[in-house]
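User: Please predict the structure of the protein below. I'd like the answer in structure-token form so I can feed it into my own downstream comparison script.

Assistant: Understood. Taking the following sequence of 304 residues as input:
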Amino acid sequence: MSEPSTTVVVVTWRGREHITACLDALARQRPHRAVVVDNASDDGTAALIATHPSAPRVVRLSRNRGYAGALAAVLPHVDTEFVAWLNDDAAPEDTWLAHLEDALRAAPAAAAATSALLRADGSTQSVGVRLTADGHGADVVTGHDVFGFCGGAALLRTAALRAAGGVPGGFFCYYEDTDTAWRLRLAGHDVLSVAAARVHHRHGASTRPGSRRFHRWNERNRLLALLRCAPPGVAVGQVARFAALTAALPLRRGPRPWNFRVGLRLQVLAEVVLRLPATIGQRIGVTRRSTVPRTAVWRVWAGR
């Protein structure tokens, strides 16, 4: 019997209420290796996954490193051709992994394949990610022409991921998928959207979209991804635009969501500035590994 081609990495944190559905669905896939990375859960998740009939390998971290940090921690130990990223609140349909593996094998130029994520009501959450004109990663809900993959359920070529610099573990969560897809694009790879690879997703079960932490990670990591991957004028311009809007906010009246509150935005700017030396070093590394100019990727995909 041949060895499995894919290691499926499920990252969990306090996932007791939903990870069983994920692991049950994963057990029905084409043969693979399953690894659950437990971000120091303290709600009984560890005991639950330790006794699951599928007997996944469990890597328990000493502290919560977030989605990106957990993926980065386990990547050096993956020795299969492909590595899948899967949220613990996602339940793939039985043919999910087969569709993704077959799609990548049929497209040698592609380094990643993204799934069709469906909400509880059956509506589409994402079939991939597009790049907006100001450098946001945004979900695509129709079609198959995508800039990047949604990290909640995707398959990547392990060697290509490593060659592109791996997972940006310091992002904690959010934009690790857009940043990774961007670096794969810069390295000359394609990203596929595979509509038949369907996944039912309890969006926001682990983190609360709209919360302060959500917006902090989202805003900070967008700017870091731009500084790492975008053309220099775009990266500097968007950071300056973020700072200018922050300075102007005290003049505005009315209720504001978290991402338009001065305190949060100042925290984001401070974190970006503190990380700037390391980010510049990472940008140099991205440049060294790239075969496609940043301007070419931006021109083709931004605002599309």
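That's the full token string. Residues 262-289 form the longest helix (28 residues).
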